[in-house]
Amino acid sequence: MSALPSYAFGTARFRASDLIRGILVLPRNAVLAFLVVYRAVISPLYGDVCRYYPSCSAYAVGAVQQHGAVWGTILSAWRILRCNPWSKGGVDDVRPHAHFHYELTPHGFVVPARKD
Amino acid sequence: MGLDLLLASTPSPAAGNGGGFDLFSILLWPFKWIVETILVAWHWLFTAFGMAPNAGLTWVLSIVGLVIVIRAAVFPLFVKQIKSQRKMMEIAPQLKKVQEKYKGKRDQLSREAMSRETMALYKKHGTTPVSSCLPMLVQMPFLLGMFYTLRDVGDHAKHGIGGVGLLHADLTKQFYDATLFGVAPLHIDLRTALETKPAGWEATVTILVVLVVLMIVSQFYTQLQIISKNLSPEAKTGQAYQMQKIMLYVLPLGFIFSGVFFPLGVVLYWFVSNLWTMGQQFLVIREMPTPGSDAARAREERLARRGKALNAEGKIVPIAVYEAEQQRLLEEAERAKEQAPKREQPMSKKRAKKKGSN
Hints:
Chain A: It holds the Pfam family YidD. Chain A is mainly α and 116 residues long.
């Protein structure tokens, strides 16, 4: 399992007062939860297979964080299609969202940004 | 391959509860269709040669044919990766430099920087030690499609319906009636055989147990060969290696439990598939081992006994040619060393001035 790039995690925490605002990021956090489990349990079994940095699963984490469950999944699927035996590989980062107004937890989950 | 099998087997209880049109079956539909087409095509071929359409052997051979088609389809990718590994030898020194640079640094930022530099290096030289993600993930739905196609035959035959494609109701019925060695139906699994005790169930259970054991042993043996012989020293240090070593023993355990629910046809498919993997792996370990691994050393020893050696390009040449090449390389290195400018001892300005005045 390749390491998550530094832009894919932060120091924010989820606060109970953000419960309502947190609904907006629920879909992407659901996908992220799946990715966290996948990266912890299934990724290591395959060993290193990805031709890129960040690896496809780490890219998916970044893409879903930045662009949400739907567009993030589409970007990740496109990345997996690009990670084929004919690709050159190399460094390929997620294009950050132009107006990303959330914060990231140490495990890469997305929480609403602090107002203050 | 081993992982795919276990993953294919894990969702089976949840998905086994019916023919509803859930998202899972919709996604799996095209793969089941392809699997059915291949299976029926082989069946058609064998019956065209005069074999009985509902005989066990005809369907067993069709399953073997299915394995061959699917494994042969991914074979070119496999060869491509082996060839790419050869090229890795050329960039080994540069790779080592990057590894030295980050030696002993375990923090996330260093690991990230090291990964980035390594990947950039691979890209620059157009080679990579890894296979890429797509083939890994593509094999999975095919395996699931195969698993559900073979498993659904039982349900479909009872309801008098066919599969999703060419495996129509009549063929499904024939598959359902087919028996291995005239006793063991291809659709039966170990649990059902023990619960319902159909005629000749003792023989059926024996055949199933033997096949499940063969499946597990072939799986274990192949993994063991890779881990014990064909890994480079670098690959044996990582976290992934520890995980592979654990999985070597966990996977067979998983199969002992899930093997009880696999229909005979599925067990047969996996056993034949494992045999293919074993053969492929045997060839690789013998003729195209990972550079630096135990298998590579064993191959060099074998070549030396036959008076041959591997030259700088990895080709087999007679030992005399090899020695001449080594001599030439040595001379070239020495000449390069001589021609390289000698390092001069740095001199302080003061001393330089003094020397100049003398």
